[in-house]
């Protein structure tokens, strides 16, 4: 009965009728009604179709709960300032979500300075920069890319790059780096 209740609840949360769910899954409306009432036991392939149409994980249909360690919340006062006094023109660099052995993604907030950093960055993985405010330029060895508020760029982190502010308005951006866990050195 747990699966039946889970399907019914998920369908109602999505605001779908049985007919809409039947159409999305290519299943008979009457069959789905019997599944929701616990009169029929769906096959795994049917559960996969239903879960996809309801945009839920199959485990949720079985009553699976999210583990405590599956969700990480980092509060504002837990961000780690990484600005170095050795690089006064660098601006703000703050680790919001550092990568770890279990997490391939890291997230940084930057307010780049106007000067070009003498040590351009390069690292394994992919990098995405999303500009929250102002204008910034990312200098690559053979070109520069200017980004304004709302712009985003994605590139291979192995490309040497430097980020700097352009203009008077303070630039602020999110930098997201994703690395392959299998190649990461232990913390």
From TrEMBL:
<dbReference type="InterPro" id="IPR001387">
    <property type="entry name" value="Cro/C1-type_HTH"/>
</dbReference>
<protein>
    <submittedName>
        <fullName>Transcriptional regulator, XRE family with cupin sensor</fullName>
    </submittedName>
</protein>
<feature type="domain" description="HTH cro/C1-type">
    <location>
        <begin position="7"/>
        <end position="61"/>
    </location>
</feature>
<keyword id="KW-0238">DNA-binding</keyword>
<dbReference type="InterPro" id="IPR011051">
    <property type="entry name" value="RmlC_Cupin_sf"/>
</dbReference>
<dbReference type="InterPro" id="IPR013096">
    <property type="entry name" value="Cupin_2"/>
</dbReference>
<dbReference type="GO" id="GO:0003677">
    <property type="term" value="F:DNA binding"/>
</dbReference>
<dbReference type="InterPro" id="IPR014710">
    <property type="entry name" value="RmlC-like_jellyroll"/>
</dbReference>
<dbReference type="GO" id="GO:0003700">
    <property type="term" value="F:DNA-binding transcription factor activity"/>
</dbReference>
<dbReference type="GO" id="GO:0005829">
    <property type="term" value="C:cytosol"/>
</dbReference>
<dbReference type="Pfam" id="PF01381">
    <property type="entry name" value="HTH_3"/>
</dbReference>
<dbReference type="Pfam" id="PF07883">
    <property type="entry name" value="Cupin_2"/>
</dbReference>
<dbReference type="InterPro" id="IPR010982">
    <property type="entry name" value="Lambda_DNA-bd_dom_sf"/>
</dbReference>
<dbReference type="InterPro" id="IPR050807">
    <property type="entry name" value="TransReg_Diox_bact_type"/>
</dbReference>
């Amino acid at each position: 009965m747990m699966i039946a209740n889970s399907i019914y609840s998920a369908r109602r949360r999505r605001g779908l009728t049985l007919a809409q769910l039947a159409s999305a899954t290519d299943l008979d409306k009457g069959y789905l009604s019997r599944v929701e009432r616990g009169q029929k036991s769906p096959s795994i392939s049917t559960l996969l179709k239903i879960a996809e149409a309801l945009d839920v994980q199959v485990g949720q249909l079985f009553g699976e709960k999210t583990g405590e360690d599956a969700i990480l919340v980092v509060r504002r006062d837990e961000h780690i300032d990484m600005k170095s006094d050795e690089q006064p023109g660098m601006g703000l660099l703050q680790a919001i979500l550092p990568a770890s052995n279990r997490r391939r993604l890291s997230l940084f907030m930057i307010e780049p300075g106007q000067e070009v950093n003498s040590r351009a960055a390069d690292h394994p993985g992919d990098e995405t920069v999303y500009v929250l405010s102002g204008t910034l330029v990312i200098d690559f060895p053979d070109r520069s890319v200017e980004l304004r508020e709302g712009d985003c760029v994605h590139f291979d982190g192995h490309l040497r790059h430097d980020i700097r502010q352009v203009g008077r308005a303070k630039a602020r951006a999110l930098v997201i780096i994703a690395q392959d866990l299998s190649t990461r050195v232990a913390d």
